[in-house]
Amino acid sequence: MRNFSKTKIIATIGPSSWDKNTIEEMYDNGMEIARINASFANQNEIERVTKTLREVSPRIAIMLDTQGTKLRVVDVNKEIRVEGKVSLSSANQSVSNSIKISYPDLHNTITRNTKIFLDDGTIELTVEDIKGSEIICNVLQPGILKPNKTVNIPEIDLNFPVFTEKDEEDIRTAIENKLDFICVSFVRNAQDILYAQELIKGTNIKIIAKIENRTGLENFDEILEKTDGIMIARGDLGVETPLENIPIIQKQMIFKCRSVGKPVIVATQMLESMRENTNPTRAEVSDVANAVMDGADTLMLSAETSTGKNPIQAVKTMAEIAKNTENVMQLTTIYGRTSCSREVDEICRSVAVLSESIPLKGIVVISDQEDTIGSITRHRPNVPIWSISSSISRIRQDLLYRGVKTYHIKDLPDDRDESTLLAIQTIYTHGELDLGDKIAIISGSSIKNKDSDIILEITTIKDILNQ
Fold this sequence. Notes:
By secondary structure, the chain is an alpha/beta fold. The chain has 3 domains: 8-68 and 162-326, TIM Barrel; 73-152, M1 Pyruvate Kinase, Domain 3, CATH 2.40.33.10; 342-465, Pyruvate kinase, C-terminal domain (Pyruvate Kinase, Chain: A, domain 1, 3-Layer(aba) Sandwich), CATH 3.40.1380. It contains 16 helices and 22 strands. It has helices at residues 20-28, 43-56, 165-176, 190-199, 214-218, 220-226, 234-240, 246-260, 282-294, 303-306, 311-326, 342-357, 371-377, 392-397, 416-429, 461-465; strands at 8-12, 31-37, 61-65, 73-74, 80-82, 85-90, 99-101, 115-118, 123-131, 134-141, 143-145, 151-152, 181-184, 206-211, 229-233, 264-267, 298-301, 360-366, 385-389, 404-408, 438-443, 455-460. The protein has an 8-stranded parallel beta barrel with strand order 1-2-3-13-14-15-16-17, surrounded by 9 helices. The chain has a 7-stranded mixed β-sheet with strand order 4-7-6-10-9-8-12, with helices on one face. A 5-stranded mixed β-sheet has the order 20-19-18-21-22, sandwiched between helices. α9 packs across α11 (311-326) and α12 (342-357) crosses α13 (371-377). It is elongated, with a radius of gyration of 23 Å. The two termini are 26 Å apart.
């Protein structure tokens, strides 16, 4: 039986981790969701990695992170040292000895003294002069620039479409391969989410909005209303906004996501030093622990597992930090409406509170109403939440929520008593329950044509299995 932290772990798959044995070991050490970063992958790679992941386990949820219409460095094929003075130009301009970037006619948009940041702010430039299509910059913070890295210009709003042609091709590949999540990069407003949802219409894929620019931050509430989940992408966000604001922004966004029962992911540089080292820094351990205490559903590893030297150890370390932190956390009920009915929200809050006053082993949810899980887990109960569904995509998507374990029952009966018995037998045979354990069960109404999940029952395992 896999027994890891309640806080879920996403691991990015890349050259360091895309072989089958490494994926198996990451899965065995706590990875629940695998991320494919389309910024560094084409359609063939998406298909190949997806096939390997499905071979390891059909239970692994797979997330495609779109490249997005972000300003990026292009035509840099190897690492280069950026220092002193540098010249920038658009990819469609024939300026020799310049670093090419992916925004057409940037020289017509930018002004002198504008600050430009490369690679999540590790390299800082300021514009000294503009000569024709050439932008001459002083390097304030030198560094090593790698291929395809991001370019941030916080002082200027650039007019980008929601998706590039590559993004739309990648999304079609995700649909064909039945991936579980698509992350929309650089989301600015609710319209971006609606456009993405139109592209995946008719599928079971869920949309995750990445918050990583000032506009997305300003429009967070409207984005949250339309999306299926949020990723706090602290890399670009830390360049677009003052660094000292990031911890506060993180807490505020997590609280808002919890209030409406939608999963929230904390991402970027969580165990960055483990790209090279077998152990994290003390500050990184604190960062991971604080994200857990803030109430995040999911934590994400990026370069640590995609290109780092210690992908398996990074997953194991994050799981250990999260599990140790969870041992001292207490239930915190939260108010606010989810997309469930008021009755369901109240039942979910009540069962979370009951789990503290009654010695419940866990909470079983047998429901076709997807948002019931979000309504319960937002209160962060300290007992497991078992999600039972006949949909394989549903049980993978529920893995994004904190504290949720999932079981797939292909032929789940419509009869409530039969489905309850089969669900408990399944959990019991996996060694997670004993006969004397007491559980809470939330299930759909037995009244015909009533689709609200309004039945809550407290019972013991032996009473169910000895029917």
